[in-house]
Amino acid sequence: MDVYLPIANLSVNGLVIVLLGGLTGLLSGLFGVGGGFLTTPLLIFYGIPPTVAAASAASQVTGASVSGAIFHAKRGAVDYQMGAMMVGGGIVGTGIGALLFRLLEAIGQIDVAIAILYVVVLGSVGIKMAMESVPELLSDRFERLKRAPSKRRHHPLVASLPGRWRFYKSGLYISPLAPVLLGMAVGTLTMLMGIGGGFLLVPLMLYGLGMSAAVVVGTSLFQILFTTIATTMMHALTTNAVDIVLAALLLVGSVSGAQIGAKFALDARPEFLRAVLAAIVLAVALRMAVTLTFRPGEIFTVSPL
């Protein structure tokens, strides 16, 4: 079933795109993170131009995060005060990302920059997750360690920022600059890489800001929803790289895949899931690194007229 993608200016097998969306949705439901960090590289591997892949993946993440944000909001598991700070920073970050995107596009280095960002970000996150999850799987003391109470505290850099506010839902007394700066960083990466940022946000909110685990996922989805909306609008207005046909096909697959993944996740050990996710992330980072070392069969780019 061939489908023409008007922005990418090529024909693809629609079923393959739906299956790619289903795979990222499956992983999203299985591991509890957004699938955007896998959608963009998988599309690039399939032959979609990196600029179109990044822009369209961001719009797909928007649709996929709606149901999750609503679910957590109904449970009262969203810190709207903290989320608003991160959304504000995220919108500023998308503007910064748009400027960088256009600059890199103008000098003809946007495709290389996207690939390098994926290698660095996914490689770092994958190594960190592997270092934490693999010893837990191999350790005989895991059950005892898992039951041991852990003390939640924010990073010393966060404690040094001026002007503290109380975030009652998260149980924090920190400077609002911390979530704003975090939102800006994730917003910039969302614009450049087409990621939702959940795989970065959740650990940073837990271990950097010191937020309560009860509201981390819901607040993360709240931030991702509005930041990816801003990213999609920014791409549509500045880069013209959002392919609505591609995004729609991805969304069809991801919604179904997320439901299946969530069911499997109920029966799996958390440390096993983290180890598998680390392996997948590192594999994608390695594959992206390989693409930087050889000449492609067809050389093309997407640039404004």
Automatic annotation (TrEMBL):
Record carries keyword Endoplasmic reticulum: no
Give the way it sits in the membrane. Multi-pass membrane protein
- Where in the cell? Cell membrane; Membrane
Transmembrane portions of the chain:
12-38, 44-71, 83-104, 110-131, 172-200, 206-229, 241-260, 272-290
- Record has Glycoprotein as a keyword: no
**Superkingdom assignment:** Bacteria
User: What InterPro entries does the record point to?
Assistant: TM_pro_TauE-like, TSUP/Inactive_protease-like
The record's family statement is:
Belongs to the 4-toluene sulfonate uptake permease (TSUP) (TC 2.A.102) family.
Identification of the protein by name: Probable membrane transporter protein
